[in-house]
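Posting for a labmate who doesn't have an account.
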Amino acid sequence: MNSKGTNSSNPTLARLPGLLPELEALYTDVHAHPELSMQETRTGGLAADRLRAAGYEVTTAIGKTGVVGLLRNGSGPTVMLRADMDALPVEEATGLPYASKVRATDRDGKTVPVMHACGHDMHVAWLVGATTLLAQARDTWRGTLMAVFQPAEETGEGARAMINDGLFDRFPKPEVVLGQHVMVGPAGAVAGRTGAITSAADSLQIRLFGRGAHGSMPQASIDPVVMAAATVMQMTDRSGHISIEDVKWRKPVVMLVNRGTRSGKEVLAYGFKQYHLGEIIGTHTAGAVLAASAFLMDNGDLLLLAVADVTVDGQRLEGVGVRPTIEVPFDPVYAAGRDPQLDYAVQLLSERIKAH
């Protein structure tokens, strides 16, 4: 990975020091006023105001709350810069003077706390800064700059909503799209690497079947929670079923099992990105459902097959004759067309289970 600090000799960055107080104020404002996915009206309004002030042609309400700004500067390529705007249903406990105290109503009608726990407040400030500096240094470049403030990255629906609303029909199609994400590292550094740098997720549900009994005779029951727990333990035993050889050590895989609510899943799956493996989403006397996600660069089939192995072994612990079932749940990210490789992996999973 290569990193390079800010170079003050770059003419585009010459005005950055004078802009930093304004960007810091914008960051703290957005952080203190987070908005849930597809509700980013205030944040989008702040972005639109900054773009207009810098001389951009601004269009709002793209995909409901998305914002597009165009700066045409002669002939040349179209370059798209993108930042996400939404926050998470998380209660902030940082103690910062600008900490969020916001509570909002989610799509299920529940009142939830809201926090920028994934850095999108920083992303908004970055893109405002970049668009402002590039507008002030138009004599150093030619082409069209397209700034996109995207809603609903956390739920996987914002990009699709903007595209369905004509993002690449109503506006110039870019030759290159540049995005970024705040990460742990030295302040003021920009880092990158050749090839893949972020991960993706495939999700599936595994249903384990038990047997109920009267509370006075627990020995006559078959507890699906025990089976689910055994499966979880084996999935997270990296020295066992999911081995270095299975995932080819050059292909990173990180796993964590989370038990909790939908919002808890979002904290792990979206706040920490690639560290969520699954959660027990429901239990009863006759079965347990385990939602599992495999996060990796590629080689997904091998990891999913390893999950099938540990699931079968977890089933065997209780000696149940009913085979576990595996299915792919609805995911808004794949609503417009799921990766066929995932369907193939699920087919292999089912065949593996039937063979035991």
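Reply:
Got it, the structure tokens are right above this. Residues 1-7, 238-302 have pLDDT under 50 and may be disordered.
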